[in-house]
Write a structure and sequence with these properties.
18 strands; 2 domains; 4 helices; mainly beta; 16-stranded antiparallel beta barrel; Porin
């Protein structure tokens, strides 16, 4: 067999400039030197190839900045969520409310994977002049049908609550979200009962007030929460019902020692201040059915919330029922596909190339009510607390690209109760305009 490598080296050696004839021994010496150099080059190339196989990659795209190992077992994503709001209140009845500009949410996000099967998330919030840890959890995802999550996260109750803050149709969530927990610390198992058709989540948590969060447990009692959700036509993308989803979430547990809930209007103003000396006591049950339907550029979401919780003032202890519902619809004028998450514009904002982003119109109606016992047992005063709130909200969303969104919403909220007889008996109607600028990549 011909030694091609040696033949090539001989040719290279023969091509070297020669001022005089060289002996065969000198040629062999030169060939040996060339062989050693080629061997060294081979080793360097192999080392470079091996290093490339194990080198981490660094990317930056719409999901944030990502550092990823070559085998995909280790991942770090760094993102952010920034929302700047301007609130303006209109009308004579709203003059006592303060117009303001504020940082609604300022949330750096760190998430990723370790050893392939363990995901993690850490997200603090520095908005509104405070520092709060919103999400801090790890999740073992080895079993698709039984993923285990531990830490602080959203309990599986309200439908719109489980939607990301960046994906909601309006700058503030609807009234049923007032009756479900925001974040809680606990354990959860979730997965698909039937792949892409039936999902579940069950968990045990410390327990937090309605629309609240906490980093501590106020007692040794626990909240038990669960959710069952159906998307029976989702696998068939051509089925007109593929965008239909419906389910129910619920929780139950003791609330002794918990803080009272903070119930706020669209303009983020409290409309049920509880009377002095009132505390949470006894048991609480939550029920939250909800559904959505998406077809082309159109989306519809409907939700109901019911909470029965114990309140106490002095020797009086009673269960009070709070109820809320909402229906919201949205339509993308620019033809993008509507879904549970934000759309990606067909053409990102770039006027020189006829790109203007995506434009969406949205409308919501909703209602909140507390049973008369709220007044009858002295838990709140009819002259300061509104027992009912009815709202409608209209909005325009402009998605300049996948990361940047501007929203303009007008919210009109009427109240029953909450004022003295001399003032008409009802809290003044809230008329609020909220302009939001939002950047998010997570």
């Amino acid at each position: 067999m011909i030694d091609f490598r040696r033949s090539i080296l001989i040719l290279l050696a023969a091509g070297l400039p020669i001022a005089a004839q060289t002996s065969p021994e000198a040629q062999d010496q030169k060939i040996g030197q060339l062989e050693r150099k080629v061997d060294e080059l081979d080793k360097k190339l192999q080392q470079t190839a091996e290093a490339a196989k194990t080198a981490a990659s660094v990317t930056a795209d719409t999901s944030g900045f990502t550092i990823k190992s070559s085998d995909g077992n280790f991942l770090l994503k760094v993102g952010a969520d920034l929302q700047v709001d301007n609130r303006t209140f209109l009308g004579e009845g709203s003059q006592s409310l303060v117009d303001t500009a504020l940082l609604r949410r300022v949330r750096p996000t760190f998430s990723g994977t370790v050893y392939k099967y363990v995901d993690y998330m850490f997200r603090p919030d520095f908005g509104q002049g405070s520092t709060v840890i919103y999400d801090a959890y790890v999740e073992l995802k080895y079993f698709d049908r039984a993923k285990v999550r531990v830490g602080k996260f959203k309990p599986p109750v309200g439908l719109e609550r489980l939607q990301s803050d960046d994906d909601t149709n309006f700058v503030e969530r609807g009234l049923p979200t007032l009756l479900v927990p925001s974040r809680d610390i606990g354990y959860q198992i979730s997965g698909d009962v039937v792949r892409k058709r039936v999902s579940y989540a069950v968990g045990v948590f410390n327990g937090v007030p309605d629309n609240g969060l906490s980093d501590t447990a106020v007692s040794n009692h626990r909240d038990f929460a669960g959710r069952l959700f159906f998307t029976p036509f989702q696998p068939d993308a051509h089925n007109p019902l593929a965008g239909l989803g419906a389910g129910i979430g619920a929780s139950t547990g003791s609330l002794d020692g918990e803080a009272l809930p903070s119930l706020k209007s669209f303009g983020q103003n409290s409309f049920i201040p509880f009377a002095s000396g009132v505390s949470e006591a006894g048991h609480r049950n939550r029920l939250a059915p909800g559904a959505y339907y998406y077809l082309g550029s159109f989306g519809l979401l409907a939700e109901y919330g019911l909470t029965e919780e114990g309140l106490q003032k002095g020797a009086v202890r009673r269960d009070i029922a709070l109820r809320a519902w909402q229906v919201q619809g949205a339509y993308l004028l620019t033809g993008e596909k509507k879904g549970f998450t934000s759309p990606t514009p067909q053409r990102s904002f770039d006027p020189k190339n006829r790109g203007w982003g995506a434009v969406e119109l949205a409308l919501r109606v909703g209602d909140f009510s507390a049973e008369p016992g709220l007044y009858n047992y002295g838990f709140a005063s009819a002259t300061s607390a509104a027992r009912r709130a009815h709202e409608w909200v209209g909005g325009v969303n402009w998605y300049l690209n996948r990361l940047f969104r501007t929203s303009l919403d007008y919210g009109h909220t009427g109240f029953t109760g909450g004022a003295t007889a001399a003032a008409g008996g009802n809290r003044p109607t809230e008329k609020a305009i909220i302009l939001r600028f939002q950047v998010n990549f997570i």
